[in-house]
Amino acid sequence: MSKKKKKKNEEPKVHEDLKGFKMEIDSFGEISSSFSIDKINEFLNKNVEDKKLKDRDDLDEIKGGSEEDEK
Questions:
Q1: Quick check: helix, strand or coil at residue 68?
Q2: Distance, CA of 64 to CA of 70 (rounded, Å)
Q3: Which residues touch 32 (CB under 8 Å, ≥6 apart)?
């Protein structure tokens, strides 16, 4: 007989900006999350390099945020 491993209810290690982030998928395949999509996209734009955009000249403008932030 194989031994069953007990699941631990430990919090996963996450980036400081994503503390409290929870994502669940229900039985119908619908994804629900504790953060808005805009906040997740903002985090990804700042912290993840996009391979498709790495050769663009205006990458700093894209990564820096919107034009409203610069004013």
A1: helix
A2: 8
A3: 23, 24, 25, 26
